[in-house]
Specification:
Layout lengths: L12 H14 L4 E2 L1 H8 L6 H14 L7 E2 H13 L2 H12 L6 E3 H15 L6 H12 L6 E3 H10 L1 H10 L3 H9 L6
Antiparallel strand pairs: 1-2, 3-4
């Protein structure tokens, strides 16, 4: 197992060791499948919307698109969520919303991902429709019904309320807390 000892990233060695042993305990094969990912986070039995969201998160963490999250992809994801700069996070959010991968987010994509997130987080002050309309109203500069990466990043960075809302709504740190402390229902 010596090959995976020296890891990239700015995490401390003990911290990396902690994640590595936890990852290998939860996933002895070193390859985390979507099913195991959901199990690790205690998110089985979600409604279809919630499932869709978790699948999108999994696909984005699966950098080489082989259908598994290996340890380096896992660490890259943790680094992004914990230490990522705001524009890195916004790029990540954009990828999450851009379900068809065409480089633009339309209202339907944003609505479906926000509905899915609400299904998991459950707490929100506005409906998915209100959220979607507000985002487009604020940052769809040319009013074409689609957001490019540039429109999205500059729009969100310009608007503090929107930045806070997006960061709070899509905060994955609760997911990470589960990963750090182990499964919620572990004995």
């Amino acid at each position: 197992m010596g090959a995976k000892e020296s890891l990239p990233g700015d995490g401390t060695a003990p911290e990396m060791h902690h994640y590595y042993s936890k990852f290998m305990r939860e996933c002895p094969s070193g390859q985390l499948s979507l099913h195991e990912f959901k199990k690790l986070l205690g998110l089985q039995g979600l409604d279809p919307q919630g499932d869709l969201y978790i699948k999108r998160v999994f696909d984005i963490f699966d950098l080489n698109q082989d259908g598994f999250i290996d340890f380096l992809e896992f660490i890259a994801a943790i680094n992004l969520v914990i230490r990522g700069k705001i524009d890195q996070k916004l790029k990540w959010y954009f990828k999450l919303y851009d379900a068809d991968g065409n480089g633009c987010i339309d209202k339907k994509e944003l609505l479906s991902i926000f509905t899915a997130i609400q299904a998991i987080n459950g707490h929100t002050d506005m409906s998915a429709e209100e959220f979607t309309n507000m985002v487009f109203q604020k940052i769809d500069v040319n009013n074409d019904g689609e957001l490019t990466l540039e429109e999205f990043i500059s729009g969100v960075e310009r608007d503090e309320d929107l930045m806070e809302l997006i960061t709070k709504s899509f905060d994955l740190s609760n997911v990470l807390k589960v990963i750090q402390s182990g499964r919620r229902h572990s004995i």
